[in-house]
Write a structure and sequence with these properties.
about 500 residues; mainly alpha; 19 helices; about 75% helix; globular
Length: about 500
């Protein structure tokens, strides 16, 4: 009896120990730990481990079998808006190939129909009627008089020899003559061709904007001087810090900037906004300079060739439908003109805003090369006009839009005033060289206001971007056809070659 009594509690204790050890081993196995070497029941542990792992292995076999048999999962189509797929490079390449092929067909059709019309010698006649008479170039040379008047006026104002009111009157007279003098010369002098006149008026328009900025900045400097400011370490208009490279140059303070060298540097610099200390690059990169020069030469020849070979025949064939008011044929001619006109506009944009302005900036070591932003991604008309021509946008914002806002004008009124001024200069640069006033460019620019409101209100994202591109592709050919038709009817109505083309 004693042996049995002694044996029973020992058995219960062993059973309890076995169960407790199995639980501890289960916890260890689940945590990824190895079995203890001091386990007194290795067989029991192994059996329990196998029993626990058996369902897991069976689940794995079932999952593997399911993966082999299954071929579907929850996912969206690649072209769906809910899909995260964004690599459309192949579609973009396809569009480029189709565009090249379609334009190649049109170019081949043009050659077979009209032959080779490119004549580089004829381009000279667009600028000069008489090889020994250069009226447009002489008109540009005369512009130095207005530059020197502005510099002389600023020096007198800095020395206190004339009052601010007298200086303002001199500037009003000088800037008014800058706009009116070339206009009168172009209208009254028959030897100036339309292209030469447009070139001269473009130079005078740029000079007008530059001298206006020169006046404002120097006036701000005098106001700062009167407020007992000691130095001008940076421009009054741009609060951004100077770069490390520009910091190497001596900073100019007012009135030390009123020099002939500083004035003409600003006149030739690719900007419309004056500063006392422009950001400067360290050196001139000759490789970059010659690449831009090569692009300027190549793209200019391409513009001339495409205009003579592609644009002129379409424009000539459009005169008769315009006179007869045949709307179906007018629409067909408009669509035919849209592609070459838009291609020429894109080439002009790259040639002027990238190649030419970077060439001048590199030559003058002008550091700010932001002449344009990503206007091609514009989803609104307003964004396009703010980003495709940064020098003009900065001038309008600094010298026109913000002063109007500070004087109490509302945002809508200020934006409308900017569009009105832009429309005036567009008409000024087109109507005066053509010697006729039809206001097509003016009305086209003012039409941007309701179009901008409509696109911003009802179109967003890709639809807004498509609307911007459509306005560029279709809007310009309409104005081109209107002006060319009116010009030929007004000036060459009795020309037998024009009559035959009509």
């Amino acid at each position: 009896m004693t042996d049995k009594d002694d044996f029973r509690p020992i058995t219960r204790n062993r059973r309890r120990a076995t169960i407790s050890n199995a639980k501890s081993e289960t916890v260890k196995l689940r945590n990824g730990a190895s079995a203890a070497a001091s386990d007194p029941f290795p067989k029991t542990r192994e059996s329990l481990t196998k029993n626990l792992q058996a369902p897991l292995n069976e689940d794995k076999r079932k999952c593997g079998l399911y993966d082999i048999m299954s071929c579907h999962k929850l996912q969206e189509s690649m072209l769906s808006s809910a899909s995260s797929f964004k690599n459309y490079r192949g579609i973009l390449n396809w569009c480029v190939v189709m565009l090249v092929l379609s334009n190649a067909r049109l170019f081949l059709e043009n050659l077979l129909r009209y032959g080779i019309l490119v004549d580089p010698i004829e381009v000279v006649s667009l600028f000069l009627k008489d090889p020994y008479s250069w009226p447009a170039a002489c008109l540009v040379i005369v512009s130095n008089v207005f530059i020197l008047v502005a510099l002389y006026t600023e020096r007198k104002l800095a020395m206190g020899l004339i009052s601010e009111k007298v200086g303002l009157l001199i500037y009003i007279f000088n800037l008014t003559v800058v706009l009116c003098f070339p206009m009168v010369v172009v209208l009254k002098l028959p030897s100036i061709t339309p292209v030469g006149g447009a070139f001269a008026l473009g130079i005078y328009t740029i000079l007008f904007l530059k001298l206006y900025s020169y006046k404002d900045v120097n006036r701000w400097c005098r106001e700062r001087t009167q407020a007992k400011a000691r130095t001008l370490s940076r421009s009054l208009s741009c609060p951004s810090t100077q770069s490390a490279s520009s910091g190497m140059h001596l900073q100019v303070s007012y009135p030390g900037n009123l020099s002939l060298r500083d004035m003409y540097y600003f006149v030739f610099a690719p900007t419309l906004c004056y500063e006392l200390n422009f950001p400067r690059s360290e050196s001139i990169r000759m490789g970059f300079l010659f690449r831009r020069l090569f692009e300027m030469f190549l793209l200019t020849q391409l513009l001339v060739g495409l205009t003579q070979q592609w644009m002129v025949p379409i424009i000539r064939s459009s005169m008769k439908p315009l006179q007869e008011m045949d709307f179906s044929r007018m629409t067909e001619r408009l669509l035919r003109l849209a592609v070459p006109n838009h291609l020429l506009w894109l080439i002009f944009f790259y040639s002027f805003f990238h190649s030419s302005m970077n060439f001048v900036a590199e030559l003058l070591r002008f550091g700010d090369r932001e002449f344009y932003r990503d206007w091609w991604n514009s989803e609104t008309i307003t964004y396009f006009w703010q980003n495709w021509n940064i020098p003009v946008h900065k001038w309008c914002l600094r010298h026109f839009y913000k002063p109007l806002m500070r004087r109490g004008a509302g945002k809508l009124l200020s934006q409308s005033a900017v569009f009105f001024a832009s429309a005036f200069f567009h008409e000024y640069l087109v109507s005066v060289p053509l010697r006729m006033f039809r206001l097509w460019a003016f009305m086209g620019m003012m039409a941007q206001l309701p179009l901008a409101w409509f696109v911003a209100r009802f179109l967003r994202g890709n639809y807004g971007n498509a609307a911007v591109w459509l306005s560029l592709i279709i809007g310009q050919p309409i104005a081109v056809l209107m002006y060319v038709h009116d010009y030929y009817v007004t000036h060459n109505q009795d020309d037998p070659t024009v009559t035959e083309a009509l």
